Amino acid sequence: MAPGCADKRGGPIPYGVSTFGVPDSPAVIPLEAGYKIAPMDTLSVKVFKMPDLSGDYEVDLTGQVSLPLIGSVSAADLTTTQLDDALTRKLGEKYLENPDVSVGIKSSTRRNLTVDGAVNKAGSFALNGPTTLMQAVALAGGTGPDANPRRVAIFRSISGKRQAAAFDLTSIRRGEAEDPQVYAGDIVVIDGSSVKAIQKQLLNGLPILSIFSPF
């Protein structure tokens, strides 16, 4: 365990948020009918006759997807058709002549709760009823050996904007703080030495506010 990692609060994401808003209700539409890509979705990208470019790619927390040759591309809030067009343009600008690209959704975080970071079994989980933050962490096998449970962030979409707030899981476990409810579409990230660079950047870079704040 990293020295001092597990017993300190830190970072500017607001703690003890009692006014954490209820997330936007997901639109009840099939993925094929105008579904908009969300952070942490996994996309299946196929480029005709280019196996080195084809594969499954995860959208990061900032809504970017990184592909070979063209680097990071904004994907969040686009339909698969719109992202298909964007990738086709970028590949056609410098690298391929008349590229044939198709984009699909392999897994959707809008339909599930995603738990990532310093947990034992990161992944997406279907919610079958009211679920709290502690229960969400339990779904992911609990916090990992390098986790800082005093610094847990929930990312969610509220009023069309991606927002986040921090929670102290240690205080929640002790009954000193309320165990907040989580919802389908939420992304829970537990801080720790092994978290991804982009997650660490967001955990460290959100403004200090007493309510959920955009990032």
Any overview of this molecule?
The structure is a single chain. With 215 residues, the chain is of the alpha+beta class. The chain has helices at residues 80-94, 133-139, 169-173, 197-205, and strands at residues 42-47, 55-58, 64-67, 71-74, 101-107, 113-117, 123-125, 131-132, 147-158, 161-167, 181-182, 187-192, 213-214. The strands form 4 sheets. Strands 7-6-12-9-10-13 form a 6-stranded mixed β-sheet, with helices on both faces. A hairpin with a 7-residue loop joins β1 (42-47) and β2. The longest helix has 15 residues, at 80-94. It is elongated and about 60 Å long.
Fold blueprint:
Layout (H helix, E strand, L loop, with lengths): L41 E6 L7 E4 L5 E4 L3 E4 L5 H15 L6 E7 L5 E5 L5 E3 L5 E2 H7 L7 E12 L2 E7 L1 H5 L7 E2 L4 E6 L4 H9 L7 E2 L1
Parallel strand pairs: 6-12
Antiparallel strand pairs: 1-2, 1-5, 3-4, 6-7, 8-11, 9-10, 9-12, 10-13
